[in-house]
Amino acid sequence: MASQTTTLPQQRRMGVRIERRLEQPLWLRIATPFILIAAALLIGALLLGLVGANPWVVYNKMASIAFGSAHGWSDTTIKATPLILAGLGVSIAFRMRLWNIGAEGQLFIGAWVATGFALFWLPRDTPQALLLTVMAVGGFIGGALWAFVPGVLKARLNINEIITSLMLTYVAILWNNYWVYGPWSDRGFGLTPQFPRNAWLPRFTDYSSDFPFLRGITAHAGIFLALAVAVLLWFVWKRTKWGYEVKVIGDNPRAGQYAGMRLARKIIIVMLLSGGLAGLAGMAEVSGVVHRLQERFSPGYGFTAIIVAWLAKLNPLAIVPVAYLFGGLLVGSDAIQPAGIAKMLQGVVLFVVVGGELLLQYRIKVGRSASS
Amino acid sequence: MELAFLVTLLAAGIRSGTAILFATIGEIFAERSGVLNLGIEGMMLMGAVSAYGVAFATGNPWLGLGVAMAVGGLMALLHGMVTISLRADQVVSGLALTFLGSGLSAVLGAPLVEVRNAPRLPVFPIPVLADLPILGPIFFNHNVIVYLGLVMAPLAWWYIHRTRPGMELRAIGEYPAAADVLGINVNRQRYAYVVFGGVMAGLGGAALSLAITPLWIEDMTAGQGWIAVGLVIFASWDPLRAALGSYLFGAIRRLPLDSQNLPFFLAYPQLGYFMNMLPYLFVILLMLISARSEMRRRIGAPAALGQPYVREERGV
Predict the structure, then answer these.
(1) Which residues of chain B neighbour A168 with C-beta distances below 8 Å?
(2) What is the mean pLDDT of residues B76-87?
(3) Do residues B29 and B190 touch, judged by C-beta distance below 8 A?
(4) Strands (E), chain A
(5) Residue B300, Ramachandran bin (φ over 0: left; ψ between -120 and 50: alpha; else beta)
(6) DSSP bridge pairs for A3
(7) Which positions ≥6 away from A92 have C-beta within 8 Å?
(8) How far apart are alpha carbons A330 and A72 in whole angstroms?
(9) Comparing C-alpha atoms, which of A250, A310, A358 is closest to residue B87?
């Protein structure tokens, strides 16, 4: 036994040890996003090479299409608009660690309600301002109600909101299909008739008679709405008691409850707001871009919004540039083969960010470990 | 007439519930060990596309099956590294895995969409038993992979509840610190079960593309990976209840297809959209039921589910 005790120090061996940095140096904090983006592009390049594409050609082409011209910026803005709105929506829920991943379904329902008002439920000659307001409010409420179900199930019965919100997404898409092929269909195709002009969100190009340089810039007023919501949400987090309470509950629900915050009520309200913004994104998309409801009008905005929100670390102001980045990715990948590259790169980016961010918080020490 | 319809439906339910059963059993093991993996959908898709591609390229569906399992396992290993070693959030990492899998499978599978004649796993009626009335067509006249599912559910139950390693598995998910004290290497076992979960998800994907709906189309799982996550909760982390849930789900999923020739549905073709919603609504209903019984019996998720185990830190 005694000899074993004396050999103890030699049991310390050379090895790799992971330990947490006590504090991150400033250079690392600034460099982190750049390191992560570079790493994601590198891994994406490897995968692209693996499937037989030339990564540099692909990246170059995507960047020049998305950001190389005024029209490119306009197209990117169009894609970024729903990403900002839905991204802000999911970020509200995520901030409280409520995993609302059904934004896609909430977006579809928002678009469905907006379409109902645009085409069927209001008189044709409704003034544009009134009609757009009703559509926006209706879209918000539609998305909010779709998120209310997972919210109330979570708050009252503690049912996993990830599953319920996602299942309802599939239901929402089928619901949408029923209407665009059924009662609202334009001659049996998977789309409704076009909205009347007074149900269109104003686009830059609509003012090209006064400002010729705006011709063909089809980005629409939804972007201003999205930016306004981003600033508003930033203010809510920074300056209001409600925002503070949501953050406390997100960090430590028990502490929140002890402090007298009403958890169940907050869960429901947060889910309503979260779904409402996704619904608003749907309204902006049909009213600003598609001008009708159709099958699969969203290329997965609600899902991409999750990545956007997470990459932006749930910071409303950071969501805007990140959404532009992903909007550019969507625009760029529309133009290249094989299809699906955008989705794949999104997965890579999210993975690198999730893993890589933690990797940078830790320090890998090679050498004698201090203790065993 | 009604009986024949019911027999067809149940047989089809068992067949089409098999893929989700594999994925659910795999996830039960991963969650029992304390690691939530929301990447099942992505791993199933990668399993499905790699199985189909390999079977087409080599002409050997069994090789496709093996590759699919390996691919699923590798993806799960990635999740393990990020969540067990780097201790990242399990929810976000799983989501990332699903995005990665659905994107990568779409890219890899683009040329396979045209292929309609890749070799399939064989159908094998079990001699004598297959000729039984009613039971024969329901249980004993299936693709070989369906039998694997039928056998695996009780085996998994036996492993978890009646063997020593199964007891250790439950321990590391309920109280990892205590398991650690007993000399169980918590993180190594977690790695093993997470990878096993991925292998099973890959197997589920392969069952889809090589047997159940033998072809490849983008996003062919249509949310089945997510439904598996829901079924785990309904099953209270019990493989036998998982089998019940999976086969029921399979039957409900088949309902719109098998009933579309009944006179009632011919009169209302648009009912199909609502029939197709049923599987998803069914999952929500299952979660409601299990939420109530969970409250009644006070049985819930493994206590350490979702939490990384770090020896120096306090935890459950």
Answers:
(1) 280, 284
(2) 90
(3) no
(4) 14-20, 362-368
(5) beta
(6) none
(7) A233, A246, A270, A273, A274, A277
(8) 11
(9) A358
Q: Coil, strand or helix: which one is B213?
A: coil
B2-16 burial code (b ≥16 CB/10 A, e <16): eeeeebebbbbbbbb
Residues A347, B100: C-beta atoms closer than 8 Å = yes
Interface of A with B in 173-192 (CB under 8 A): 174-175, 177-178, 181-182
A-facing residues of B in 55-84 (CB < 8 A) are 78, 81-82
Dihedral-angle region of residue B219 (phi above 0 means left; psi in -120 to 50 means alpha; beta otherwise):
left
pLDDT value at residue A372: 39
* Residue A300 in contact with partner chain B when CB distance is under 8 A: no
When CB atoms are compared, the residue of A157, A177, A346 closest to B273 is A177
Q: What is the helix (H) or strand (E) element at residue A16, kind and residue range? A: strand A14-20
- The pLDDT assigned to B66 comes to 96
- A101 at the B interface (CB within 8 A)? yes
CB B184 within 8 A of CB B172: yes
Assign a CATH topology to domain B2-297. Answer: ABC transporter involved in vitamin B12 uptake, BtuC (1.10.3470)
Cα B214 to Cα A292, B119, B160, B286, distances in angstroms: 36, 9, 32, 29
Range 203-232 of B in CB contact (< 8 A) with A = 218, 222-223, 226-227, 229-230
Pair of tokens at residue A88: 């802000």
Question: Would you say how long chain A is, in residues?
Answer: 372
Q: Decide if B99 and A350 are in contact by the 8 Å CB cutoff.
A: yes
**Which pair of tokens denotes residue B75?**
């993806």
**Length of chain B, please?**
316
Looking at the complex, report in whole angstroms how far the Cα of residue A59 sits from the nearest Cα belonging to chain B: 16
pLDDT band at B113 (very low <50, low <70, confident <90, very high): confident
Nearest to B49 by CA among B135, B121, B110: B110
Q: What is the pLDDT of residues A281-337, one digit of tens each?
A: 999 999 999 999 999 899 889 988 988 898 888 999 999 998 998 899 888 877 776
Burial class (CB in 10 A: 0-12, 13-18, 19+), A10: exposed
Interchain contact B288–A (C-beta under 8 A): yes
Closest to B86 in 3D by CA, of A356, A25, A311: A356
Helix (H, G, I), strand (E, B) or coil at A369: coil
Distance from the A160 Cα atom to the nearest Cα atom in chain B, whole angstroms: 8
Q: Looking at residue A253, what is its pLDDT? A: 77
pLDDT in tens, B166-177: 999 999 988 888
Find the helix or strand (DSSP H, E) in which A161 lies: helix A161-181
Q: Which residues of B touch A159 (CB under 8 A)?
A: 287-288, 291
Contact call for residues A282 and A298 (beta carbons, < 8 A): yes
Could you report the predicted ipTM of this complex, rounded to two decimals?
0.83
- Rounded Cα–Cα distance for residues A103 and A94 (Å): 12
Of A110, A343, A93, the residue nearest A222 (C-alpha): A110
Alpha-carbon distance B110 to B218, whole Å? 8
pLDDT band at B118 (very low <50, low <70, confident <90, very high): confident
Residue A371, SS3? coil
Using the beta-carbon criterion (under 8 Å), do B103 and A341 form an inter-chain contact? yes
Residue by residue, DSSP assigns B244-277 as: HHHHHHHHHHHHHHHTTTSHHHHH-TTHHHHHHH
List pLDDT tens digits, range B32-66.
Answer: 999 999 999 999 999 999 999 999 999 899 999 99
DSSP state of B302: -
